[in-house]
Structure prediction request, 320 residues.
Amino acid sequence: MSDFWSERRVLITGGTGFLGSAVQRALAPLAPGEVITPTSAECDLRDPTATDKLFSATAPDLVIHLAARVGGIGANRERPGDLYLDNLLIGTHVIDAARRHEVAKTVAVGTICSYPKITPVPFQESSLWTGYPEETNAPYGVAKLAMLTQIQANADQYGQRAIYLLPTNLYGPGDKFNPKVSHVIPALIRRMVEAKEADAPFIEVWGTGSASREFLYVDDAAAGILAAAERYDGIDPVNLGSNHEMLISELVPLVAELVGYAGEIRWDTSKPDGQPRRGVDASRAKELFGWTANTELRKGMKTTIEWFLNNREAAEARAN
Prediction:
């Protein structure tokens, strides 16, 4: 066990959320000096004054910035302006506060949605600025990518130490299953479970099934974030991924099998597929800080489904 963490005061924004809770689980055996996880009710990071007060009160040595306003394709289409502005303000204020309060290191976590709509697969970090993101993801993706520009500009002007990570689509225990904000895996799990319980003869799924995604188990992502915090100090972005691209047309029957739903799958081709393909090259993470994902998708899915069935009310209640 490394002694890197023993005297560090770690501020995790979004620390009580899906990814933040996994980071807390991964941190626990490392025995950090202190872990601070304010909720959005305790500190509105869209407010620069509130953000500054948080940094003054906590005096962190390390910031892991995970806080974000997120949603699936539906939320992205219904609230693009809110998602853009909220995420732009949150990222800007946290990184600026970390600079002004001379935080030793900041780990900013972006999104795979920032990559251009048409990008050679697997996505390499050098492709980030080669085009515009897929339209339904663009407001969120552009806002999160702005953090990378701010980090690099601050490094040049002020010498701020900060890194930028790009995890691919996350899933796992603790995910959001409310239909207003859920992404593809939790949305499918919830709908398959409901269809099975109702003995529904069929279920409709958005799109054509031709799009692909790469899924990363949330605990693997948390391990990657901590490895980067400890061992990486560059200003170049780094992907976190599982190196396994999967068609949605393959994912849907897998979820049905694991849930035990035997009805027909109908594709609603009037609805968008989102970005045509997603799969990342995670070799830089292995090279720079020795991280690779370890959880096979089927195993991770089983654990996620079990967690949902055991925590259904709370899983469906989270709407932000």
